[in-house]
Amino acid sequence: MATPSLTATDLRRALGWLGARADDLRRAAEAALGRNHVRIGVTGLSGAGKSVFTTSLVHALAHASAHPASMPLFSGALGARGWDATIEPLDGLPPFPQSANVAGLLADPPRWPEPTSSLCGLRVRLVHRGDAAREVRIDIVDYPGEWLLDLELLRLDYAAWSAAALARLQAPGSPAAEPSGIWLGQALGAASDAAAADRLVGAYGGLLAHLRDHGLRHLQPGRLLVPDGVAQATAPAPLPAALDGTALHAAMAERFDRYCSEIVEPFYREHFAQLDRQIVLFDVIGALARGPAVFADTQSALTSVLASFRYRSIPWLDWLRARIDRVLVVATKVDHVTTSQYLNVRQLIADRFEPTDWANAIAEDRIRFDVVASIRATLDGWIRQDGAQRAAIQGVLKQRGGALRLLVPSDVPPKAPEASAWPEGGFVYVDFAPPALSAFADRPFPNVNLDKALDYLVGDRLR
Ligand code: GDP
Fold it and tell me: Any idea what DSSP says for residue 216?
């Protein structure tokens, strides 16, 4: 009888599983001693607002106890005495630049933080003011959503992934169709050897960066967008079926397998598997502003990112994500529209998920949809237009010399419109500079719904 043989990958998975179980036991013991620990992942596709969100959330956690009235929906969890907060580095991860980000926001003129381009994190240690033995450690891990998109690769072989990736790029009407056609021509004319594979991957990385700069988000492999030497040495590029059976195809397929086992799987085991709670940020308003093709692409990327939390087709992933018991999906930068539109923005992200696979998770409150402005850069106002009063917003424009403007942003549709029903002239929203924040050095920054987000993510651990 044949004995099943263990591969190095099986062993790595088994060790990862044991590590996670040992960690569970340690946490249970700590909880019994009054020390609580929760690890929160913050993710979202490039430009979704991760860096601003994490900065503002941590600043709010640090100062909410002194200013409970500014976080009404979180003040119940903080209790009457409140908590003293310290910000610490997180073992094994590059530090999230919290103090540099806060300094930039407090400066005159204020600056938005640099975007998140790689994995980083910090710990907020809260000690109860009435009982120093009560301590809660909140770990916050910020990572690019593009890395979660790569999970799809684990379910496919190289040929199937190539076909899916190329079909997306070549979809009629996609802004990717023309530039990816040029790249495909290059691939079809390439020499058939490993050196050609290196060159093609370099060119493909350039194509992905170009498409990202034009607003597309469903781009793989994600690590080609966050240049780091290791991932680039193994990342594959998709090839057309016409090249099946060539040495070039074989070299790319080998890269694909190495990328999955050396880059994608370890990320899940070592980082994703350690998370208890997850927040997924989605710039739905920015995607609407970029037109129907970009909007559809961003929605498909979000669907794929969210699938990471419910994959059942990869058994070993099931225990990986089993630990995450709350997922908060939020539309960011909601201060780009008037308050009257918030419900529609929420509906627009929830609409895609509520009726089908997510029904149980929603009913059990394991997933929630909401809207957030991590830092509120606009104020509500009114404009008289065509003889009528119209709700408007006022803020300092990010571009065009930073002028203060009062304007009426487009209404937000509660459901994704068909491309053919897209309004003439599109949906118009503009970016704003951060407001003057020097008065907020020791109090939560002005925001929308951060208190609600904090209550969902950590409130139960403080009560
Ligand atoms: P990341 O790539 O996901 O880390 O995105 P960032 O956090 O760097 O955010 C990208 C940009 O979005 C920022 O530079 C701001 O212009 C804008 N932004 C992010 N959050 C907010 C917000 O709460 N309000 C407003 N008005 N703009 C925001």
Answer: -
Helices (H) and strands (E) in the chain, counts: 19, 10
* Ligand 1 binding pocket mutation candidate from 50, 290, 333, 437 (most atoms within 8 A of CB): 333
Q: CA–CA separation, 65 vs 76, rounded Å? A: 11
256 lines ligand 1 (CB under 6 A): no
A 10 A CB-CB count for 365 gives 10
pLDDT digits (tens, 9 = 90+) for 415-438: 988 888 899 889 999 999 999 999
Phi-psi map region of 268: left, alpha, beta (phi>0 left; psi -120 to 50 alpha): alpha
Q: What share of the chain is helix, strand, coil (3-state, %, to 5)?
A: 50, 15, 35
Q: Would the CB of 143 count as within 6 Å of ligand 1? A: no
Do 415 and 351 meet the contact criterion of CB atoms below 8 Å apart?
A: yes
d(CA 457, CA 78): 13
Query: Is the CB of residue 45 less than 8 Å from the CB of residue 26?
Result: no
- State the closest ligand 1 atom to the C-alpha of 48, by its place in the atom list counted from 1: 3
Residue with CA at minimum distance from ligand 1 atom 27: 333
Q: Which residues are 404's β-sheet partners?
A: 396
The angle formed by the CA atoms of residues 172, 178 and 181, to the nearest 5 degrees, is 100
> What radius of gyration, in Å, describes the C-alpha atoms of the chain?
23
Task: Please tell me the total number of residues recorded for the chain in this structure.
Answer: 463
Q: d(Cα 152, Cα 303) in Å, to the nearest integer?
A: 11
What are the CA-CA distances from residue 325 to residues 104, 113, 359 (Å)? 34, 30, 15
pTM for the model? 0.89
Q: Under a CB-based contact definition with an 8 Å cutoff, are residues 306 and 280 in contact?
A: yes
Find the 49 Cα to ligand 1 centroid distance in Å: 4
Q: Which atom of ligand 1 is nearest to the CA of 47?
A: 2
Question: Which of 212-216, 268-272, 353-357 has the lowest average pLDDT?
Answer: 353-357
Cα–Cα distance for residue pair 392/396, rounded to 1 Å: 14
